[in-house]
Amino acid sequence: MSWQVHLPALLIAVPLLGAFLAPLTALGGKGLRNTWFVLVSLAFTLIAFLLWARVGAFGTAVYVMGGQSWNLALPSGMEVPVRILMEVDAFSAFMVLLSAVAALAGAIFSVTYMDRFSGLEKFVALYFLMVAGMFGMEITGDFFNFFVFLEISSVASFGLVAFWRDRGEALEAAFKYMLVSTLGALMVLVAVAFLYSKYNVVNMAALGKVIEWGMVEKTSLVLFLTALAMKCGAVPMHMWMPDAYAEAPAGVTCALIAVSQASLYGLFRVTYTIFGAFMGSPIIPWVIIVLGVLSMFIGVSMAVIQKEVGRLIAYHSVSQVGYMLLGFGVGLLALSDARAMADYGFTALKGGVYHIVNYTMYKGLLFLSAGALFYATGCRNLNDMGGLGRKMPKTMGLFMIAAAAIAGLPPFNGFVSKLFLYESSFAVHPVLAVFAMVTSVLTLASFVKIFQTAFLGPALKKFDNVREVPGAMLLGMSVLGVAILLLSLFPTWSVNHLVEPAAKALVDQASYIGAVFAATVPGGGL
Amino acid sequence: MTGNFPYLVVGILFVIGFVGLIFEKNLVKIAIAVSVVEAATNLFIITLGYRSGGSIPVWTMAGSGSSRMVLPTPQALTLTAIVIGLATTALLLSFVMTIYRHYGSLDVRDIRRLRG
Prior knowledge:
The structure holds two protein chains of two kinds. Chain A is mostly helical. Chain A has helices at residues 7-25, 30-58, 90-113, 120-139, 143-161, 168-199, 204-210, 215-231, 240-247, 250-275, 283-304, 309-333, 338-377, 393-407, 413-428, 430-455, 471-489, 491-507, 509-518, and strands at 61-64, 85-88. Chain A has a two-stranded antiparallel sheet. Chain B is mainly alpha-helical. In chain B, 66% of the residues lie in helices and 0% in strands. Chain B is built from four helices and no strands. In chain B, 25% of the residues are buried.
């Protein structure tokens, strides 16, 4: 067995080590702490990449913590996976890779962005804890650990949102976020308990194998859906999202986006892998689709009227999450019907999966450039800005890339994923595609507004001293900028190698379940 | 019938907590409501793990009834959930404290600088 077998464990261990040693590195001064911050981030990005490559080459990786296999036969003859299991299929590996890139960009950006503030060793520790929780949610093989990692990443992110605790608004945002998150997490726990009450297992693969369709499962599914939709900011419970995203330091927001994507991942793991084709009725898929359409439309209409850069971009997060819910909802609708799946379901899924990576990259970049504007000018309000394009040409260039991508202008990656979504949702109902397109137009409108007010126009007297942001911040932004450009320039490669394996893994319920049960051969830990 | 009483208590507690979370105006009361929901959840899992006549899942202490040991999973889950609940409650209360310093009020109607 090569050392690469242990990649799933390392993926969580490295950020945890980073978190616990961060306060110690502060003893060595600023330089050591910053080096540690960037080095650990590079390390987990590398691990995430290796894991992704390994899963691509060898198929689903199952890792049993502290043992060769999960095998446990009780005296009663009952066989259940009881150990702590990590299961990384192509979809998990894909999520891990893009979250790692977003977290790396946020970390590099934060090194200079947060330089003016004290208490940074705690910032670094919380940042890594949040990242560890996020990775844990994406690779765990059982539901209870999903809840634990959800709480780890949530509690760490509450602290990070409220990091500027001299601002009442930041505390207010963190409190709101915390109420929604804690309630969501408890609902996840109740849902897990419902499933446990019937099947006596919390392992995802074991549940997927035995699950039936009854009252207990319905209750549990509804609880999961409500809780995870709350956590990823779908419309009826979206109000925490603009507050938390706009008030958190920009580098943190960049990673927070990836954290909310992890909740979305949980939602799709539950609906596709656990229930999958067992789900007899089209009600749940339609609920997801309607939530998606509402999020898209309400999110974007709230965004257009905002005056604060951070809040404007944050409202777009609500509408972008709507696109993903639409794609996955349509895919779920077609899941039990092979012909519909081939017709439009798989296209919708590809669109949804592709939109996850696109969204994480361009939305992260947008928040980082909003942070750069705040760093350089000290302003949050669009009405106070103007003519900054002359002073900050590089930030403007990166902002342009991200804005073009989110608006879905043709050469950019946002266009490809949105096209998939338009095509497939049109096949279900034309109204869905109309909503998606109107949202896209309004998105473009609001980014033209930011671009025009902040960067164009005559140079303002009060911004005479404004200079381009320091190199480390530009580097952090460039990580995401380059990722967007690569995704845009090689759409065929990214669809074939990045998106399709992930979408296939999501619909292939049998292989996710089989991978765990095949791993019981003695010595066959992987 | 009496065996279902614990579930009834769980349901009532959950609803009390949930209603408190939505309708209370005082931040401390909201924090209490969250704790009540937490308690309901923990009680739910513990109740699920109860088997009448079962013994604790430790070989040396189980005695002759060892053929009827309960599965230890719910206890382990609840312990973890209690620890997490403690951490969230502590953080929630410290937020309440710092919010009071900034706004001079604990009423949610006064804490509304972020809207729209």
